[in-house]
Automatic annotation (TrEMBL):
Occurrences of domain Cyclic nucleotide-binding (ranges): 22-62
UniProt cross-references to SUPFAM superfamilies, sorted A to Z: cAMP-binding domain-like
Name under which the protein is recorded: Crp/Fnr family transcriptional regulator
Entry-linked Gene3D superfamilies: Jelly Rolls (2.60.120.10)
């Protein structure tokens, strides 16, 4: 058994307890079906086209999920980290559709620093769903949040121009400009670093410089 609650200051158990209070049985069941892993900077956790067999709850460090389109252009889909600014889309590293269907995915996942994470396999998740009503209830809540995240991300990329996407980031996720380099911020906005620089120059106020500690 991994004693998640005592081992990590911000654990998977604590995260689930934000939505509902777990009983001792469920806490032990989750602990018994998790594995603690440490990844080095630059590790590829998932390659595009592979089946996403595991979901990783990030404990510390930074990573990103990304996709490459038919032209060969790579776009950062989501950033992954665990701090006071993080939320559901930052905490779990997984190609969710592939994880649920068992079919090859479209996302790649890589670490941008050393990352510590808690891993659950699809089989382990199914076991938790079968034997823990509380975990099953929490999973329904999680699925709703994941759907909203995916909807908002697609809506942003499809309906907003580059400047609007940057302004949205300033309003909703300014912490990303501290955590990640301009290269990755541009990739997240689906623009070139040069375009990002031009957008910043055209804006009257630039609250944060955007020079993060995670560099390309």
């Amino acid at each position: 058994m991994i004693d998640l609650k005592s081992k990590y200051g911000f654990s998977l158990i604590e995260f689930i307890n934000r939505d509902l209070q777990l009983d001792e049985y469920t806490i032990n069941l989750i602990s018994d079906n998790c594995k603690e892993l440490t990844f080095a900077k630059g590790d590829i956790i998932l390659k595009q086209g592979e089946v996403s067999k595991y979901a990783y709850f990030i404990v510390s460090g930074e990573g990103r999920s990304f996709y490459t389109d038919f032209t060969g252009k790579t776009t950062t889909w989501l950033f992954h980290f665990n701090n006071a600014s993080s939320n559901i889309k930052n905490l779990f590293m997984v190609d969710y559709k592939s994880f649920l269907t068992g079919k090859p995915g479209t996302l790649g996942i890589e670490t941008l620093s050393e990352v510590k994470a808690v891993r659950l396999s699809y089989k382990q998740v199914r076991l938790l769903l079968k034997y823990s009503p509380l975990y099953e209830k929490w999973t329904r809540l999680l699925n709703e949040k994941v759907f909203i995240v995916a909807y908002n991300r697609v809506f942003t990329l499809l309906t907003m121009n580059a400047t609007q996407r940057y302004e949205k980031l300033l309003a909703e996720e300014p912490h990303l400009l501290i955590l990640f380099s301009n290269y990755y911020i541009a990739s997240y906005l689906n623009i070139t670093p040069q375009s990002l620089s031009r957008i910043r120059k055209n804006l009257v106020k630039i609250p944060i410089s955007g020079h993060g500690h995670v560099s390309h």
